Amino acid sequence: MSNYVIFLGSLRKESTNRQLAEAFIHHLPEGDTAAVFERLRDVPFYDQDLDVPGQEPDAARELREAVRDADGLVIITPEYNHTAPAVITNAIDWCSRPMGSGVLMGKPSLVMGFTPGPRALVGATAVLREALETVQAKCVATDYTWGDAYTLLDGRHPKDVDEVVGILNKAQAELAKLADATPDRVDPRAGGGIGAE
Ligand SMILES: Cc1cc2nc3c(=O)[nH]c(=O)nc-3n(C[C@H](O)[C@H](O)[C@H](O)COP(=O)(O)O)c2cc1C
Questions:
Q1: Which atom of ligand 1 is closest in space to residue 147's alpha carbon?
Q2: How many domains does the chain have?
Q3: Long-range pairs for 155-163 at CB < 8 Å and ≥24 separation?
Q4: Range of 87's domain?
């Protein structure tokens, strides 16, 4: 039984990636749960002056707690300018500190996404994998992304599209395997991250 937190990279109401998150939740194996962290838009830009133990901004503290308490992280996002949307990289920055004991250390992680463009998020996934590996998250071997997503969906919700559901099942099985193999607590003394405190 695993419980996952989802970072959603698109903030717009009609987001196809929000629909993909809904499909991810809908098709989880029985007993597993997942929820979108809905306060990403409230998390301020990372600022070391704000990151004072016990006085972190509320949304940043909730973000860290949500990731800490989850068995895995699922990033579901579009690509912006061949990189990842700022809400996602900002969340990773907050979760990467304190250096050496950030909540992403050892966290099983999966990246998925829809884009209407033809290149299927190659820029965003490269950036996210680099960042997640830097903070010593445990990434699923494959990123699961779709280009030309509006053509694929053709007005349907992704939870009803067989091709999407098949990939969701595969991605969920890979994430569950990593989560099952991960001890409850990761030793922060193992290090991780870049930069001086
Ligand atoms: C600032 C901005 C930059 C974008 N850059 C890219 C891009 O580099 N590659 C791409 O395929 N789509 C790009 N798009 C299109 C987005 O993928 C699309 O608008 C949308 O966000 C798809 O996700 P959503 O339906 O979940 O919002 C960009 C959109 C915006 C607003």
A1: 11
A2: 1
A3: 157/19, 157/22, 157/23, 158/16, 158/19, 158/20, 158/22, 158/23, 158/114, 159/19, 159/22, 159/23, 159/26, 159/27
A4: 3-181
